[in-house]
Amino acid sequence: MDSDPTAYIKAAAAVGAGSAGATATTATTATTATTAAAPAAASAAAGGTDIQVKPADQKPRTPEERWSEFATAQEAPPSRPVRILRAVGRGLVHEYTLVIVAALLVAVAMTWPTLRYPAYTIPQDIWDPTLQAWQMAWSGHILLTDPANLWNANTFFPEKYSFAFSDSLLGYAPAGMIGTGPEAALIRYNIMFVLAHALTLIGAYALVRQLGAGRIGGAVAGLAFTFAPWRLAQEGHLHIISAGGIPLALAMLARGHGFSLRHGYRPERRHVGWAVGGWLVAAWQVSLGFGIGLPFAYVLALVVLVSAIVYGIRTVLRRRKPFGKKLLIADLIGGAIFAAVGALIALPYFRVTELHPYAQRNIAEIDFFSPPWRSLLLAPKESLPWGDLHEPAREGLPWPPEMTLLPGFALYALALIGLLFSVWKLHVRLLLLAGAVVAAVLALGMEVFDGRYTYVPLFDFLPGWNGIRTPGRLIMWTTLFLGILAAGAVSEFGRRAHRVARTRIPSWPGPWLRAAMVIPVLLVLAEGLNRTAHPVVPVQPAAMRTVDGPMLVLPTAELSDMHVMLWSTTTFQQVANGGSGFTPRRTAELRKAAETFPDPVSIGYLRSLGIRTVVLLRDSAPGTPWERAGDVPVESLGITREDLEDSVVFRL
């Protein structure tokens, strides 16, 4: 069909002219009118009729709405499973998820072969570790069966409060509720031994990160604090290596109060939950024992005091920043819980000192265990890099296991660099240096000015401080301060490296620069390499699974009795045997009286204590006073004897 093209143009012009003079209502429908103009123009061209454009019956459209039909279609919200998967994915790549996984892997590798034969071997030696394996087993068992008798353990019969004769590791009681018997106790101990290293690494990393260091700096400080050479001499003391709660609690408290060394106090970052969590972790740390828990409590009290003074001064000078009632209440409640836990655990220890006043430490004992200055440069024999090299120097030490206090030469070097080159401000660096020096001086005990102005005032005036026998363990705080200094240097290097990298294309550090940033990590990790022994633990005698108490196991001595404590974890029968930080006088008298067993005098003495059974271990008897005790006739002694495969059981 023929048509004139000009007709369409004229029709469109007529529509445009009409729209220009239309009312406001007509103007809002210009789009609709224009859309209808084309068929109207075609009709006018064909028949020559007038064009009448009527607005469509619809709501007016805003200018933004005119373009909405060109927009991309909006996505439907994701379903719940999709949201869950996305949250899980974000969690898996979160910094602290990766830190936890890495810490576990490093802890397993650095403590290997602890988990190779966990039911048969134990780290360091077969004395204190077996005692601590029993401690975890006892606390878990008694809290499930008879919590009121927690502190009256089944060992050292008939002594009271015997669970308080050494640090209790009470915080590990939940683990002690799993499994029974010596093998379960060994597996439990070995697992907690590895986890203690992992937690220490995580806690130190979290603290240094919260204070403002970078990731590499946090890794350096965490590894240096966890695997410092001096710790290798303490691998047989789970209550000493279980220090992860200290930096973790400090990190959580700092996070809850919006504080960092690098950025100061930032009230907008406060979080009540983190503050409460920090107090709870601190209380758990103290529950593991006062060997390192007591100094931590005093450090925490000092931090709170200094913070309150600084905040008060700022208030007077009208420089106060908001603190918040909720945070204050959280601190009061958390601090009360921390103090209550410490007091409740301390009560049985005070009771022990009342019953056994000779168990208290004295200045002469502190003096014996005080390390010389050169101890700060000496590593224990378990150190793979330095153990053999330092052997001649260790020979002159009165008690090398407590006097090899090397935090690490790499850590010393990095901390020294951190004094000159760091992300921390100058006054912060000086405070960290002062903290490291003060802690080192205290760790030397009576060595500096005979302790008159250093250790003795703490011993005399701070409640509970006289219970600390070995001051060298305070080197832990020197290690922490040096680690923070080292983290400042490494973080500053990383910051400048990234600044240089931004000028490159692509804008990230090159391979050599990235390798240089990893070198400090490798150095501090290398100094933690060790050759810790993993001896096989003596097998439980069959009699320990069947014979009831109260009983005495022969031979008896302070160290071998620790094995008896472990063997008793099957039924937890009462045993007169026991090993701890001190020996009760009645236990010493019992051992002396039992040397002539079986005879009328020793039998009468044992009966007077309430002991009704004596188990003689044949394999352990040679070379002891009880070497021939199993062959002595007992018919005239009023007792009976039962010969078992590996032991002899005497019924009194």
Assess the beta-strand content as a share of residues. under 5%
Oligomer: single chain
Classify the helix fraction into a percent range. 40-55%
- Give the number of helices: 26
Class from helix and strand fractions: mainly alpha
Alpha carbon gyration radius: 37 Å
Largest sheet, if any? 4 strands, mixed
Q: What is the strand arrangement across the widest sheet?
A: 3-4-6-5
Say how many strands there are.
6
Low-confidence stretches at least 5 residues in length (pLDDT < 50)? 1-51
Helix and strand topology:
Layout: H1 5-20, H2 24-27, H3 30-47, H4 63-66, H5 80-92, H6 95-110, H7 128-145, H8 173-176, H9 181-211, H10 215-226, H11 238-241, H12 245-256, E1 259-260, E2 264-265, H13 272-287, H14 290-316, H15 325-355, H16 363-368, H17 391-394, H18 409-420, H19 426-443, H20 455-461, H21 475-501, H22 511-526, H23 543-546, E3 551-554, H24 560-567, H25 585-593, H26 600-609, E4 613-617, E5 640-643, E6 647-651
Parallel strand pairs: 3-4
Antiparallel strand pairs: 1-2, 4-6, 5-6
Helix pairs in contact: 1-3, 6-9, 7-9, 7-24, 9-10, 9-12, 10-21, 10-22, 12-13, 13-14, 13-15, 18-21, 19-21
Notable traits:
652 residues, mainly alpha, 3 domains, four-stranded mixed β-sheet, two-stranded antiparallel sheet, 26 helices, 53% helix, 3% strand, disordered N terminus
Describe this entry's structure for a reader:
Residues 56-68 have a biased composition (Basic and acidic residues). The chain crosses the membrane at residues 96-115, 187-208, 215-232, 238-259, 271-290, 296-317, 329-350, 405-423, 430-449, 474-491. Residues 41-74 are annotated as: Disordered. Keywords: Membrane, Transmembrane, Transmembrane helix. The model is unreliable at 1-51 (pLDDT under 50). Helix 9 (181-211) packs parallel to helix 12. The chain has 652 residues and is mainly α. The longest helix has 31 residues, at 181-211. It has three domains: 5-67, no CATH class; 92-121 and 180-526, no CATH class; 543-651, no CATH class. It has helices at 5-20, 24-27, 30-47, 63-66, 80-92, 95-110, 128-145, 173-176, 181-211, 215-226, 238-241, 245-256, 272-287, 290-316, 325-355, 363-368, 391-394, 409-420, 426-443, 455-461, 475-501, 511-526, 543-546, 560-567, 585-593, 600-609, and strands at residues 259-260, 264-265, 551-554, 613-617, 640-643, 647-651. A hairpin with a 3-residue loop joins strand 5 (640-643) and strand 6. It contains 26 helices and six strands. The strands form two sheets. A four-stranded mixed β-sheet has the order 3-4-6-5, with no helix packed on it. A two-stranded antiparallel sheet has the order 1-2. The chain starts with a helix and ends with a strand.
